[in-house]
Every structure is written in C-alpha cells, then in structure tokens.
Design goal:
The chain has 227 residues and is α/β, with parallel strands linked by helices. It is 33% helix and 20% strand. An eight-stranded parallel barrel has the order 1-2-4-5-6-7-8-9, surrounded by six helices. Strand 7, helix 7 and strand 8 form a beta-alpha-beta unit. The N and C termini lie close together (7 Å).
C-alpha cells in the first residue's frame, strides 16, 4: 500500500511555516504532497498563513483581514521570509498541493485561481469547514476535496459524503481502526495528522492509513522503510 507523506505547512518543524523557503525545502526532502493554509487579505489576495491573525508567525499584530497584501508583504514571516500568496507557491514548487481553506470566504478566490491556472489535477482542496467544501463542489464539480477534523466520531464519514469529499484528514490521536475501516469501505481515503515521531508512524501504519501529515523530513525517510 502506498503511504503518502504530506509536508505540513511545508516542513514547519525545520523551516518557518507557510513560507516559500519551507515549501521548497519540503519538495527537496521528497515530500509526496505539500500542505498549506489560505486566508484572504483585506484587498482579496489569497495569502498563505495558518492563523487568522499575524501575531504568532510574523512581527506584526492583528487580523489578516485588516491588512492589504502590500502591508502583509512588509512583515517578517520568519528568517526574513515574506508571506506568500497561493500563486507564488504554485510557481515555486512542482509537487502536488493540499490547499486548506481556513476562511470560508477564500473558497471562491481559490476556485478562480484553480480554474485560471488549470490546477485541478494538482491541488486537493481541504477544510475543516463543510460549507467551504460544499461551495468548492458547486463552483468546481470535478475538484478533489477532503474534510479535515480534530474532534469527531463515526459521523465524520457521513459529513464527508454530504459534501462529496473523497478523503478524510483526521487528528491521529482520536483515530480508531473501526473508523478507518468504515471510511475505506465507504471509498474514502484517510490521512492522519500530525505524524511526527516513530511511534506516530507505527500507529499510522497499524491503522492502515493512506498517509500522514508531518512537520519533519525524517518521517518521509522513515516511511520508506516501514512499508
């Protein structure tokens, strides 16, 4: 069984998260897929950042939605890196991407870029927000989508089907073999997050997951020898 290793915000364990430097490093380290997060700036740019506020990962303060793209570009996102926009990541790496919609309002902007840049074969759209995935399905019926969840039960399978998602991306600490088997029987792939240690990787393998999202390049190397 193929086990995908997905670089979490690039490889955030060793590089500033959600920066071009982190994404390029993830590709260099051989990650199968690179995951990133999307919000909208005040002027509608599709900016790559996890939090709704810039405080944790930059030298600025306040909500992303209060900044124009030009203002966001002035912030240091770690080691001199600048906050990228989605299109820049698409151009900087050639690996498949998981684009996580953190702000439901970003769904339409992402759909526009995926269409304009012909990226549907390269980008999976993922989100904690069922309504964001439903909107993507309406705008782009052929898009590949995944439902992300941290606290969940077996009902997460029905939620995924309700928005026509083909994959679940789930907090590995709550995963059970029963859920994975039911998801697979329902033709859903299951990815676990975050797989950051040998024990996490052993658990992911034991649960027969389709892949794991990780902060560290070493997990990619370890996964090659635990097939």
């Amino acid at each position: 069984m193929t086990f995908l290793t997905i670089g979490h915000r690039g490889v955030m364990g060793v590089e500033p998260e959600n920066t071009l430097r982190s994404f390029v490093r993830a590709e260099h380290e051989g990650m199968d897929v690179i995951e990133l997060d999307l919000h909208l700036s005040k002027d509608g740019a599709l900016v790559v950042m996890h939090d709704a506020n810039v405080d944790r990962t930059t030298d600025g303060k306040g909500p992303i939605s209060d900044f124009t793209l030009a203002e966001l570009r002035e912030l240091d996102a770690g080691d001199g890196e600048r906050i990228p926009v989605f299109e820049e990541v698409v151009d900087a790496v050639s690996a498949p991407l998981q684009a996580e919609i953190k702000d439901t309002a970003a769904a339409r902007a992402l759909a526009e870029v995926l269409t304009r840049r012909d990226l549907l074969d390269r980008v999976d759209v993922i989100s904690f927000h069922d309504e964001a995935l439903a909107e993507i399905r309406t705008l782009l019926p052929s898009a590949r989508t995944a439902l992300v969840a941290s606290r969940y039960g077996l009902d997460v399978i029905d939620r995924a089907h309700a928005v026509s998602a083909g994959m679940l991306v789930l907090n590995i600490r709550r995963l059970t073999l029963e859920l994975v088997e039911r998801a697979h029987a329902a033709e859903l792939k299951v990815i676990g997050w975050t797989v950051n240690t040998p024990d996490h990787l052993k658990l992911a393998r034991g649960l027969r997951l389709d892949g794991g999202t990780t902060d560290f390049p070493e997990i990619r190397r370890a996964a090659r020898y635990t097939a």
